Amino acid sequence: MSEISSCTLDGPRMPGPLPPAVENSRPTSILGTLWWALFGIDTRSLALFRMGLALLVLTDLYFRAGSIRAFYTDNGLFTRAQSIEFSVDNPYLISLHMLSGAYFVQATLFIIAAVFAVMLLVGYRTRLATVMSWIFLCSIHARNPQVLQGGDVLFRCLLFWGMMLPLGASFSIDRARASNVAQPIPRTISTIPCMALLLQVCFLYLFTSALKSHSDWRIERTAVFFALSIDQLATPFGEWLLQFRGLLKGLTTATIIQESFGVYLAFAPGILLALCGRWRLVPVVTQWARLVTVTLFVGFHIGLASCMELGPFPYICWVAWTPFLPTMFWDGLRARWARRAPTGLTLWYDEDCGFCKSMTRLIETFWLLPPHAVRSCQSDPEVFELMGRENSWVVTTGDGRRHVRFAAVSVLMRHSQLLAPFAWLARRPGLRALGDRAYRLVAGHRATAGRVLVFMHPHELFVELRPRAQLVLDLLAAVLIYYVLLWNFRTLHAGKDFDTCWATRFFPTADNWILEIPRLDQYWSMFSPMPLRDDGWYVTVATLADGTKVDVLTGKTPVDTSVTPPHLANQYHDERWRKYLMNLYSADFSKWKIVYAHWLVNEWNRKHGAEIGKMVVHLELVFWKKTNRYDGAPVMTRLSLAKVN
Questions:
Q1: Which residue, 34, 97, 442, 449, has most beta carbons within 10 Å?
Q2: What are phi and psi of 322, to 5 degrees?
């Protein structure tokens, strides 16, 4: 069907109802079958991946927004000039947030990034929204790298590979407004970018396990004990686990095994069956293996999140595993719903009403109605007459009953795979009466309502790109994932033998720009080669003009003792402050300690300058370093990091 681009007064002129997505015809060749099984991604998994990425962006912006002034303006801790100085090792870091150090400009950039994230969430102009979300994410990372963690690296890698994938193929506005309805939407996508995304997730675990080379992980098996001994990270549950030394040794071994071999479970069964000549079993067994792998790693990160405050890292990893969800997972959910869902639903729409078609498309897409549940009222004279008389859409059910206005909403919700648990709300008498009034208001002003749906103008949905464009994308993805693999192998030799590493011969450091420009440079050093031994907390001993002393971090009397504060991990404002302050006491950040001390004084004086005698006249920034030991009590050391007069 050709694309219809005209627009009537009452909304965009949309084509007919959407056909359901169909399963691809499987490859007939042996290698094609293996490729399809190992690297195919269901478009419903991509939709969940898309929404997860969008929610991560919005959540990240929300938490960063509380520290815009401190972390992203020239009046904060990290001016633009200092940011350039800090990032001198990577000259390809480009940041829109470097355009100005003013609060208003930074806040505006945050709002723009949030708009693109919402577009990504609902799947509107999905590829553009993905590209812009990646640009803004890289921009904010480049503006202040001092507050980044390993999850941020994975986050921008996932967004990058997402730009090459049809994230809007399912459960999206782009799907709802697709004009190429004559072309069935394939259920599974199997391209080089699909392979790159799946391998990128695997590289995280394979190389972080390889970097865990210290005897804490491999011999003594004390790594989990030391990780949970970091008070700046440990949750109350993690602190409680410290008393079970034998269990912690077992968890250390389990962590190494899972990270080293767990990802192979998603691929190895299919490959082994292929080598044994059991080709027909490869797709089925691989899907089961993927489902088990996803369950194991999601559970693994639930365990990590329950023991340690790791910021967004566990949630980013959960999203990273969503593309591995196999077709059988979604088909199983749909079959389970179909067994207990009402049958015989039909939603009738007016063929001559552009607004009606647009709304029907949106409901059909986002409410997950049963297949073939949408029909034109012009095909049934009785329904057409009822629709004209009631000035309403019509929904019929298997028992032959016809429902109009808001009563139809309740029926649709009961048949929706997504909204069925909330259908009882629509049956409440008060809400139903309010809904009928709202429906009459909208039905009487279709022209105005149609203008609201201007975003529903038809477009052609490119799930599978044209051959030439797909070839370019495949070549680019293949080259980049090849260099990502070499880059990760180089990180294993970051010490003395780096120049003699075999990967360096194929990927010399002079070519780092290949991955630094797209921000695919990565180093998975989580608790590698061993967990931190040094832990601690800050105390700011500030003397006010009236002679009183106060800790400007807490506003209370400074407690300058070696007694560890209770639940230290909860005393940080958010993950960005935790990462900044955990970095600050290290020798690599020595020049930033005085900057932080001056900022604390200025912030206190800005907030309390109007109060008589409350100005800070002297401040000492103290860090109580706690060096953890496996046998014996930790060693406490008081470090004076900076003084301001």
A1: 97
A2: -60, -35
Q: Residue 612 is encoded by which pair of tokens?
A: 């008589």
The amino acid at residue 550 is V
Give how far the C-alpha of residue 215 lies from the chain's centroid of Cα atoms, to the nearest Å. 33
Whether the Cβ atoms of residue 453 and residue 489 lie closer than 8 Å to each other:
no
Report the C-alpha gap between 331 and 249 in whole angstroms: 40
Distance CA 33, CA 544 (A): 74
3-state DSSP call for residue 123? Answer: coil
d(CA 265, CA 319): 19
CA gap 328, 337 in Å, rounded: 14
Integer Cα distance of 130 and 156 in angstroms? 11
What's 344's DSSP letter? Answer: -
- The model's pLDDT over 462-471, given as tens digits with 9 standing for 90+, comes to 776 777 888 9
Q: How many CB atoms neighbour CB 33 within 10 A?
A: 18
H helix runs in 147-191, sequence order:
150-162, 173-176
Q: How confident is the model at residue 17 (pLDDT cuts 50, 70, 90)?
A: low
How big, in percent rounded to 5, are the helix, strand and coil portions of the chain?
Answer: 55, 10, 35
Q: Angle, to 10 degrees, between the axis of helix 43-65 and the axis of helix 126-143?
A: 40
Global pTM? Answer: 0.91
Q: Which residue has the higher pLDDT, 554 or 447?
A: 554
Show Cβ contacts of residue 152 under 8 Å, excluding neighbours closer than 6 positions.
141, 312
Q: What is the torsional sign of CA 232, 237, 238, 239?
A: positive
Is residue 485 within 8 Å of 64, Cβ to Cβ?
no
Q: Which amino acid is at 114?
A: A
Q: How many CA atoms lie within 13 A of 84 on its CB side?
A: 7
In the 3-class helix/strand/coil scheme, how is 383-409 assigned residue by residue?
A: HHHHHHHHCCCEEECCCCCEEEHHHHH
Tell me the Ramachandran region of residue 459: left when phi exceeds 0, alpha when psi lies from -120 to 50, beta otherwise: beta
Question: Phi and psi for 533 in degrees, rounded to 5?
Answer: -90, -35
Q: What is the mean pLDDT of residues 470-477?
A: 93
Measured CA to CA, the distance from residue 186 to residue 19 in angstroms comes to 11
Would you kindly state where each structural domain of the chain is located, as residue ranges? 7-20+336-447, 30-328+463-516, 534-644
Q: Which pair of structure tokens corresponds to residue 147?
A: 């507050």
Residue whose token pair is 């478009």:
43
Burial class (CB in 10 A: 0-12, 13-18, 19+), 116: buried
Does the pLDDT value for residue 354 go beyond 80? no
